[in-house]
Design brief:
The chain is of the alpha+beta class. It has helices at about 10-20, 25-30, 50-60, 115-125, 165, and strands spanning about 10, 40, 45-50, 80-90, 90-100, 100-110, 130-140, 145-150, 160.
Length: about 170
């Protein structure tokens, strides 16, 4: 279903798939007033992807940020503060703190045996909050090294952020 300006409209099942929860959980959030719909069309509630992500990020203490791509985080560059580096098997991660949670940028070491990306995400985010972005091997002369975004709260799901979306 398409919304304004071609934006996709999600039903309860779509919101559940987006956030990695059963449709029944979304139904409960709606029933208890925790989640308001973006709109109604022909008597059916619908949500935009942006609104579902914004709602997830507004839920404190539930580690929902690990289910939202960093590209959907509001004003990420404006509220990031560098924290530390973290050594990983075959990589080094730089960690920033933001209002939405930690952001880890993982730089694989060129001469080391590398661990699987998901293993790095588990080490960096044991509570599955925040974001993990791996600098991959591909290089674009125009855009720099390729990035692979991991969702710690939804293991196995990845996305492709751009450098401009990560600029602090």
């Amino acid at each position: 279903m398409e919304g304004p300006a071609g934006r996709r409209r999600l039903g309860m099942g779509g919101v559940g798939r987006l956030l990695g929860v059963p449709r029944l959980t979304v139904w409960w959030w709606v029933k208890t007033g925790k989640l308001a719909s973006t709109g109604f069309d022909d008597g059916q509630m619908w949500w935009s992807e942006d609104d579902a992500y914004e709602w997830a990020l507004s839920q404190r203490g539930n580690q929902w940020s690990g289910r939202v791509p960093v590209t959907a985080w509001p004003s990420m560059p404006l509220n990031a503060a560098f924290d530390t580096t973290v050594e990983l098997p075959g990589a080094v991660a730089l960690r920033w703190h933001t209002r939405q949670g930690p952001v880890h940028l993982v730089w694989p070491l060129p001469t080391s045996r590398r661990a699987p990306h998901q293993q790095w995400a588990e080490q960096l985010t044991p509570r599955r909050e925040g974001a993990v972005v791996v600098v991959s091997g591909g290089l674009s002369l125009r855009h720099g090294p390729e990035l692979k975004g991991l969702l710690p709260g939804l293991p196995g799901r990845t996305y492709t952020p751009t450098w401009i979306e990560l600029v602090p």
